[in-house]
Specification:
The complex is a heterodimer of chains A (117) and B (363).
Chain A: E1 26-30, H1 37-47, E2 52-56, E3 62-68, H2 69-74, H3 77-87, E4 97-100
Antiparallel strand pairs in A: 1-3, 1-4, 2-3
Chain B: E1 13-14, H1 20-30, E2 32-36, E3 42-47, H2 48-53, H3 59-62, E4 69-70, H4 75-84, E5 89-94, E6 97-103, H5 104-156, H6 159-163, H7 167-194, E7 204-207, H8 208-223, E8 231-234, E9 242-245, H9 247-263, E10 270-278, E11 283-291, E12 301-302, H10 325-334, E13 338-343, E14 349-356
Parallel strand pairs in B: 1-2, 4-5, 8-10
Antiparallel strand pairs in B: 2-3, 5-6, 7-9, 8-12, 10-11, 11-14, 13-14
Classes of the chains: A alpha+beta (117), B alpha+beta (363).
């Protein structure tokens, strides 16, 4: 009598919604990361044209920063880059690509004026 | 050497967005790749060291900034740019337009070859200068020493002996003075010709036999204090033939050709000086050549040591004061002459001076 063995498999399956590109606000490219600025820029432009600006950085480990125009509308690029240099760059390795969530909230101390008559 | 002469138009190229993995082998073979886009625009040069410093996936992402060569860059600037950029090739631009690629090895080889050539020229020039100065020194001292020597002899003679002084002594002193003056004239003239100054010519009529006799006398006097036993044979088929030209220049040229010839033959050789009319007597060709033919005593001027009580302290004038052919040609140019030199495998040579011939001018 022939022995028959059933083959079974199991896989862990999960899924979630993703959006392309897989970042929204800021992307930092290390100098030795697999993708360079031209490749990333071309990809982003194909996916969401005219939504990001590219800034070349003079840093030991960071090559390029992509900043969403929505963020640039709210804050000057020099200010953003200054914050990134102080708070994020020290943690970036040359071979990494870092996604930065930059949610900006703007407060006014007081807003005054006159009612229209 | 212009930079444009070394531009390479056929260079290894790739598109900007090709993957690095696909061009790795090509890069290893060529040491560099030129990135040209689909519109034929130059994007940059990719080298192996670029991939190490920027290990991205696309060729254009790996490129680093490099120096650009302009067509009017000097060679020191060119070498400086190659030194700053670790690349074996750089792009060449003119008026903002990409022309091609300049490879470092090509330019270095050319510069090296040019430097070798300059060095050889400088060495030859220095050697010629040294020999010229040495020879010139001999040519000045020889007649001066003759004059001084004979005047000393004459001054030591008693009043009785003075009457018996051979005319030959006075003749030697006179000819030595003329020789000295001639050497100084030659030097001044050489300076003028070399500086491009206009040199005048003075035409006169003379019988060719007279020119030959002057030369013969000069070399006879000169040989009195040298060990040179070279024989001069002047061949003149028509002793009444005249020539109308700058006689001084003709003598000057023949003198230097004979002098050069004496330098290049062995002792005891014979040098012939002759002329031929050519082109239906429109031109005359003077020739100075070495000859192995036997010559009878009465036919030649035998330059050999004569007994003399005057001793000299300088060396043989084997390498006598002579102008190179280039300078002799410059003198010949003054009388529309052309100097040629021929030699054969048996070391026989002929110097020729070909010039327009006018027998005489009716006044």
């Amino acid at each position: 009598m022939e022995e028959q063995s059933d083959r079974k498999f199991s896989a862990q399956l999960s899924f979630e919604e993703v959006r392309l590109p897989p970042f929204e606000d800021i992307l930092i490219l290390g100098k030795k990361c697999p993708q360079g600025k031209h490749g990333v820029f071309k990809s982003i432009e194909f996916l969401i044209p005219n939504e990001f600006e590219v800034f070349e950085i003079n840093d030991e480990f960071v090559e390029t920063v992509f900043i969403n125009n929505r963020v640039l509308k709210k804050m000057e690029k020099d200010e953003i880059l200054k914050i990134l240099k102080e708070k994020v760059f020290p943690y970036v390795s040359a071979s990494e690509i870092i996604k930065v969530d930059f949610k900006l909230r703007i407060y006014y101390d007081s807003v005054g004026g006159e009612f229209a008559k | 050497m212009k930079i444009e002469d070394f531009i390479l138009f056929d260079y290894p190229k790739i598109m900007p967005y090709v993957g690095i993995l696909s061009i790795e082998n090509k890069l290893k073979e060529n040491e560099y790749l030129v990135i040209i886009d689909e519109n034929n625009n130059f994007q940059g040069i990719l080298t192996s060291s670029d991939i190490i410093s920027r290990p991205h996936k696309l060729a254009i992402d790996c490129m680093t900034d490099k120096e650009i060569i302009l067509t009017d860059d000097t060679y020191p600037l060119l070498l400086d740019k190659f030194k700053k950029t670790p690349s074996v090739a750089l792009p060449v631009f003119k008026d903002g337009k990409f022309l091609g690629i300049l490879e470092k090895n090509t330019i270095i080889q050319k510069i090296k070859s040019k430097m070798d050539s300059f060095q050889k020229e400088a060495e030859i020039s220095q050697s010629i200068k040294t020999e010229f100065l040495n020879n010139f020194s001999h040519e000045l001292r020889t007649p001066l020493n003759q004059i001084i020597g004979f005047m000393n002899i004459i001054s030591e003679l008693s009043s009785d002996d003075l009457d018996k002084v051979d005319d030959q002594y006075y003749s030697i002193v006179k000819k030595s003075s003329e020789q000295f003056l001639g050497t100084m004239d030659d030097l001044i003239e050489l300076s003028r010709i070399n500086s491009g100054e206009e040199v005048q010519i003075f035409k006169d009529c003379s019988i060719i036999e007279s020119i030959f006799n002057n030369l013969s006398e000069y070399f006879e006097i000169k040989a009195q204090y040298t060990n040179n036993k070279t024989k001069l044979h002047f061949i003149n088929p028509d002793k009444t033939r005249t020539i109308y030209s700058d006689i001084k220049r003709i003598k000057q040229i023949l003198f230097h050709l004979i002098n050069n010839s004496i330098k290049h033959v062995n002792e005891g050789s014979v040098i012939e000086i002759c002329y031929t009319l050519i082109n239906e007597e429109q031109n005359i060709c003077f020739q100075v050549r070495n000859s192995e033919k036997l010559i009878l005593d009465s036919d030649y001027t035998n330059i050999k040591i004569k007994d003399s009580k005057i001793s000299t302290s300088y060396n043989s004038l084997q390498n006598g004061f002579d102008f190179g052919l280039g300078i002799i040609q410059k003198i010949a140019d003054l009388i529309n002459g052309k100097i040629t030199f021929e030699t054969d495998s048996n070391n026989n040579f002929t110097y020729s001076l070909e010039m327009p011939y006018i027998a005489e001018v009716m006044k």
